[in-house]
Amino acid sequence: MRPVRTAFAGALLGTLVLAGCGQSGTTATPTSAPATTSAPASASASADFPVTIEAGNGKVTLTKKPERIVSLSATHTETLFAIGAGPQVVAVDSQSNYPAEAPKTDLSGFKPNVEAIVAQKPDLVVVSDDLDKVVAELGKLNVPVLHQPAATKIDEAYEEITELGAATGNKAKAEEVVSGMKTAMDKLAAEAPKDKKLSYYHELDQTPYAATSQTFIGQIYAMFGLTNIADKAPDAAGGYPKLSAEFVAQSDPDLIFLADVKCCRQSKETLAKRPGWANLSAIKNDRVIQLDDDIASRWGPRIVQLAETIGAAVKNGAS
């Protein structure tokens, strides 16, 4: 039985997703696992129910396979489609921009409208934040809700994917996705250069907020043996310190990763205009990496793509 995770990271990452203004592409999910045939799916799915999931809102029991799923989380929308539950999804929130075929609506996970959600006649609602007590409000109407908070560890991301598979009758495919992710992540970590300790700065927004090694995003960077300059920042409690321009300039990171590209149009050129940043090593050596805001703020199957981008940057930086 897992503990309920804190919502701080989810709230912050959710805000970043709201800030994103671009649409993701149509790249396939980054699991290298092959597709599987599903001839006995209906019999297998019915045999898997009832099922009880230990979620952020406690034990959630589903008596039968859900056929009308509403997702109010961009991360979980990606996961649902990756594990084969796409045909069961009838509506997703306004921030769920991947994959392209997701049935996007004006529903909001940040200002949930219970009446609008219920109008979709869902037999399962998936959320990453329990804002405005949406879980309890839907519960009063006997609508099953699965609250899967933002992952604070990579293993929690895997766990949530597996749980969504069990909850939707796609257990085997979910396990296949997780297995592919783990294999890909292990391979990337193993290929990372070990002879040069590079430092980095991951920018969440241009305030600038950063993420320490204690966060989910920081754990992914740690796979590559990188030193996070935010770890020594004052007031790093919570894992997301607000850094000063002077702090970043004095730290002079070897690599800079920008997760505020689509939302805020940040680039090597805009960074160079900040006071004291023009001579930063990462800028002079052309080692400013522009990330996809969405991928960098979600904890679903596409974390492999994020790790691939980091891995490539580390190899270039160590050469």
CATH class of the largest domain: Alpha Beta
Annotated CATH homologous superfamily of the largest domain: Nitrogenase molybdenum iron protein domain
| Main sheet record | 4 strands, parallel
Going across the biggest sheet, name each strand in turn. Answer: 4-3-5-6
Q: What percent strand?
A: 5-15%
Low-confidence stretches: 1-41
CATH topology group of the largest domain = Rossmann fold
GO biological process, one term: cellular response to iron ion
Domain Fe/B12 periplasmic-binding: 68-318
Keywords: Signal
Signal peptide: 1-19
Could you explain how this protein is built, in words?
- Helix 6 (154-168) runs antiparallel to helix 7 (171-191) and helix 7 runs parallel beside helix 13.
- Residues 1-41 have low confidence and may be disordered.
- Helix content is 38%, strand content 12%.
- The strands form three sheets. A four-stranded parallel sheet has the order 4-3-5-6, with helices on both faces. The protein has a four-stranded parallel sheet with strand order 8-7-9-10.
- The protein has 319 residues and is an alpha/beta fold.
- The protein folds into two domains: 25-31 and 42-183, Nitrogenase molybdenum iron protein domain (Rossmann fold, 3-Layer(aba) Sandwich), CATH 3.40.50.1980; 192-318, Nitrogenase molybdenum iron protein domain (Rossmann fold, 3-Layer(aba) Sandwich).
- Keywords: Signal.
- Residues 68-318 form the Fe/B12 periplasmic-binding domain.
- It comes from Nonomuraea polychroma.
- Belongs to the bacterial solute-binding protein 8 family.
